[in-house]
Structures are given as C-alpha cells and as structure tokens.
Specification:
Elements (H helix, E strand, L loop, with lengths): L8 H19 L4 H13 L3 H4 L13 H7 L8 H22 L1 H8 L1 H20 L9 H9 L1 H17 L9
Helix pairs in contact: 1-2, 1-9, 5-6, 5-7, 5-9, 6-7, 7-8
Length: 176
C-alpha cells in the first residue's frame, strides 16, 4: 500500500509544482513534507485501482469508507497494529482525495452529510495512524498528525489544485 509515484515522474513533477504553489501561496501551509505527500498521493491515485486498493477477503474492492476498516483484508501475515495503521492512513488519504478533489461527487450522491463524514473520518484516521506509528514507519507520525490537524486546509488546497490543473493547457504535439 505504499505510494508509487516514481512511475509517474512527469505528472508527479506537475502535481508537485501546482501543490507547492497553491499550498504555500494560497493556503499558507508551508510544509514541504505535506506538499510532497499530497503530490505523491495525487500521482498515485491517477489509477482507479489505486484509489480502490482495499479489498475484502474475497477480492471485492471496497468503495465505501464505512466498510474499509472492518472489511479490508491485507493478508494473513500482517500484525494487527500494522494493519490498523495502514488502513487508517489509507482512509485518511481516501477521504482527503475525494473531499478535496471531487467533493461534488460526494454531495451529489448523498448530500452534504457524506462530505461531512469524509471530513470527520479522514481527520480522525490520520490521527489514529499517527498514534500507531513507530519510529521506523513511513510516512512518519508527525506528518500524519499534521495531515490530521490541517485536514480542512488540505481539502481546501486540493480543491484549489484541481482548479489550477483545469486551467493548464497542453500544447498539441508537433506535426510530423
């Protein structure tokens, strides 16, 4: 369940520039750890299979945040504390992604209550993941704690990132 942005270097660089600009200038959150993490998360979530990476024991992708902790199967060899940390970190990422990048999808399906639930669950999950972190875990507990403490700012920032990305025009490829 680790982030794998290395295979998306050009898009990761684009996300990195936009995220840093938005968070440092518009949001006022000048934390390179947070902006790097968010850039990696956006690059990682480019693929739908990475957004819905948690599966049940039968292999069914889990799409509802309410089922993630209880139904996720990470394998037989993972210890309970590590499982809890990974799932809570992922719930934080999942909630942050949807609430920040596609909030209208949440409100369109279930009204403002689902968006509110994502905000509460995401913030809480990052805090729990930070408390379950050990000194050698990645990302470190202080980064997860910062994501939880600044969750609403991160949601707002990701919404601004989305708006900025919509304004970027890609030139057509050169004629051959």
């Amino acid at each position: 369940m680790s982030l794998n942005a290395s295979s998306n270097q050009p898009i990761r660089a684009l996300f990195g520039g936009v995220v840093q600009q938005v968070f440092m200038v518009d949001v006022g959150l000048c934390d390179p750890g947070v902006t790097d993490y968010l850039s990696d998360m956006l690059a990682d979530f480019l693929h739908v299979d990475r957004i819905y990476r948690l599966h049940t024991v039968t292999g069914e992708p889990i799409r509802e945040i309410q089922r993630m902790h209880s139904d996720a199967y990470l394998g037989p060899d993972i210890e309970p504390a590590a499982r809890n940390r990974l799932i809570h970190k992922y719930i934080g990422d999942f909630a942050l992604f949807w609430a920040g990048v596609f909030p209208e999808q949440l409100t369109r399906r279930h009204g403002p209550d689902l968006l509110r639930e994502y905000l509460l669950r995401g913030k809480r999950s990052y805090h729990i993941a930070s408390e379950l972190s050990r000194p050698d875990t990645h990302p470190p507990s202080d980064l997860l704690r910062n994501l939880g403490e600044h969750f609403e700012f991160c949601v707002h920032g990701l919404h601004l990132v989305r708006d900025n990305l919509h304004q970027i025009t890609v030139p057509p490829p050169p004629a051959s």
